[in-house]
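Q: What structure does this chain adopt?
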Amino acid sequence: MAPGDVVPDHAKQLKSKEKRPASRALKSECEPDGSFVFEAHEAWKDFHNSLRHFYEVGELCDVTLKVRLPLLPVEFLTGTVAKDEMIKGNLSCRDLMDEARNYHLHLNNKVVPDFEYSVRTIPRKHTAGVLFCVGGRGGSGDPFRSIECYSITKNSWFFGPEMNSRRRHVGVISVGGKVYAVGGHDGNEHLGNMEMFDPFTNKWMMKASMNTKRRGIALAALGGPIYAIGGLDDNSCFNDVERYDIESDCWSAVAPMNTPRGGVGSVALGNFVYAVGGNDGVASLSSVERFNPHLNKWTEVCEMGQRRAGNGVSKLNGCLYVVGGFDDNSPLSSVERFDPRMHRWEYVSELTTPRGGVGVATVMGRVFAVGGHNGNIYLNTVEAFEPRMNRWELVGSVSHCRAGAGVAVCSSHVSQIRDVGQGSSNVVNCM
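A:
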């Protein structure tokens, strides 16, 4: 992959010049760390009966400490758990409820004095979801239709069922336990179509196509719909934004961005969708803007410290992380973090290697960076950022060396996804 992959061809000369089932929801045994496992909505009644036993013997708080209350939906916390008489009557349990409320306030960009993360704010491995790496391209030049999936418990990758189309510089996101792959380039032409992977059927299904064919787009989901942001073809960078309604299987246009952005990164954070960096057809961008769906309006926010396109973007602990990418010529190892409560960017620890065209997602309280191009070769290495240690560390490798892949975390269980073996698009080397 080269910087030109995130810039229209006509601009290159310019640049040179410049859920589990309810029956399984409650287990009598504990996880290795002593934590009880339950599915909030389906199992609260049974779990509540168990709580009564601990309440009667004076051990209610001890068992409630094992429950990750902050990870429950805020509506369930306030509407069910907080109204429970046993919880209301126990001071220690009320402190745990305060921790859960503060966690949700923090994630919604509210300033919470002295807020601290705890083990209860980190998903358990068995329920954290599956990391998908979808499409991209490697040294062979042809885009992949293969996907690779990361098993958190085994710390290993395996191949899942392949897409219908080859796709590089594809937009990928997971919503409602399904994975969506949108647009990209198949080696011959730009794509506007979309396909969806359902872990229950282990199949990719074609869905409605976007109005604009493009690669280098970014996807974000906020309040239900999926937003397809920016992108480029061989002639133009786009400021177009389309919104996909999952229920009606229909795309519609929303307000365009203020700036064209190909190779842009995006994520939904708080009540906004952010568009980070990208290339406007002439140069890589440090600018950032965010979309308010209620006003149908894009507004500029603070610029990054570094211009970058082909960067990965994810969120963690209420902050936005932008990882790697290309400046006008070279892949980057720098990583920046934006705190919307402070309206400020800051650099954090660098990647172990530069990564342009990197795929990024957050799982188990860490930001994962998958593949990319370091300026010499395509990469199959994967590294993860630990925010408490402010450190990146290598955590294994995908089988295919690839850049321009889409990476997302699906809320399915890893055992649902069929391991198809080596796949048909094997890469011999990483050049």
